[in-house]
C-alpha cells in the first residue's frame, strides 16, 4: 500500500528553517520560485522549509512511536542523531563483527532499528550498502496563487546582560541586538509513505521481518505522521517562534501502488488528484481519497486513512 | 574586471570562510534576478560580519576561522554595485566571471580592510 498526503498550512511569523547566522543576523531559508504575473513568468524568492527539516521531524516522531509500541530503535536514533549506520563506528554498535555480505549488513541494520528501516541509510564503507527511504517529503513552499504575498522579514530582538564596571571587558555591551528573519506564508508540501517497503530488503525484495513485526512497524510509521501533523512539531525555533496559524487543508490518498497526490501548491490540487485517481480506478486499482478542507479537521482525514489501511490488512 | 574588485573581494572573503552559497548562486545564475537577490543577501551578511569583526594592531578588521585570521575587506561602493547590476542586466556572463574570479587565488596578497 502507498500513502500520499498533500498538506497546506498557514504559518505567520515563523522561523522554522534557519540557514545561517552572519554576525547578528540569522537568515530564513529562501528559494527561487517561478510565478506568473500579468501573463509573464518571473522569479521571486520566497521563504521555504527544506524536506530535510521535515524528514528529521518525522523521524523524531517515529522514534517515539516505535518505542511506544515496543519496537527496536538503535542508540543513535534514540537520541535523534540520525547517523544511519554511516560508517564502521556506528554499525559496530548494531553488529560486531561486521558481515562481509551487503545483504547481511542490511538485515542486521533493519532488524535493529525501525528508523533506518523506514528512513533508509547509507553505509559508506566496503562493501557500501544503501537503502532508500520508504518515506519521501518535499520542500514546503508557498502556495502558487498567493506566493507573491509571502514575506520574509527580520524581527529585532535584544539580549541583556547585567554588568558593573568590574565585570565589563573592553567594548562589551550590556545590550546586544540581533535579528531573526521570519517567514509568513501559506505553505504546501507533499509526504509519501511506501508501506510495502518497510521491513523488506532493498537488495533482494524479500521480507526481512515476520508479518506481525511488519504490521507493527507500518503502524508506527503512520502514527508518526499523524503525530507530526497533529502536533505541528516540525521545524526549528518553536520555543519562541511557534508559527501562528495551523493546518488549513489535508488531502490523503491510499493506493495499492505508488501514486502521489497533485502538489498542494496548486489551487486545484484536490480536483486534479480526484480525476487522476478516477483514471486509476478504471484500470482496476482500489483507493481511498479523503480530504479535510472545511468541516472536517485534518485528524479526521488521517484517521480515515488509518482505518482504511487496517481494513486492507496493512496493519 | 577590475571595476568589480570590491565585489570580488567580498565574495572571496565568503569563500575563505567556507561559505560558498553566495558565489555559487551568483556564478550559476541564469538570469539577473538571482544575482540581485544574492548580492543583497551577501551585502547584508557581510555588513553584519564586518561590523562585529575585531580590529588588529594595524587597524585592519579580521575574523578567525579554524585558527587562521582572515582579513575582512572593505564594503563595495554604491557605484561599483550599480555598475555591476547594470552590466549583469545586459550580460549575465558578467556574474559568472566575477564569481569565477572570487574562487581563484588573488594575484597579489590582499590587505585587510580600508581602515
From TrEMBL, chain A:
<dbReference type="InterPro" id="IPR010154">
    <property type="entry name" value="CRISPR-assoc_Cas7/Cst2/DevR"/>
</dbReference>
<comment type="function">
    <text>CRISPR (clustered regularly interspaced short palindromic repeat) is an adaptive immune system that provides protection against mobile genetic elements (viruses, transposable elements and conjugative plasmids). CRISPR clusters contain spacers, sequences complementary to antecedent mobile elements, and target invading nucleic acids. CRISPR clusters are transcribed and processed into CRISPR RNA (crRNA).</text>
</comment>
<dbReference type="InterPro" id="IPR052681">
    <property type="entry name" value="CRISPR-Cas7/Cst2/DevR"/>
</dbReference>
<dbReference type="Pfam" id="PF01905">
    <property type="entry name" value="DevR"/>
</dbReference>
<protein>
    <submittedName>
        <fullName>CRISPR-associated protein DevR</fullName>
    </submittedName>
</protein>
<dbReference type="InterPro" id="IPR002764">
    <property type="entry name" value="Cas7/Cst2/DevR_sub_I-a/Apern"/>
</dbReference>
<dbReference type="GO" id="GO:0051607">
    <property type="term" value="P:defense response to virus"/>
</dbReference>
<keyword id="KW-0051">Antiviral defense</keyword>
TrEMBL record, chain B:
<dbReference type="Pfam" id="PF09702">
    <property type="entry name" value="Cas_Csa5"/>
</dbReference>
<protein>
    <submittedName>
        <fullName>CRISPR-associated protein Csa5</fullName>
    </submittedName>
</protein>
<dbReference type="InterPro" id="IPR010157">
    <property type="entry name" value="CRISPR-assoc_Cas5"/>
</dbReference>
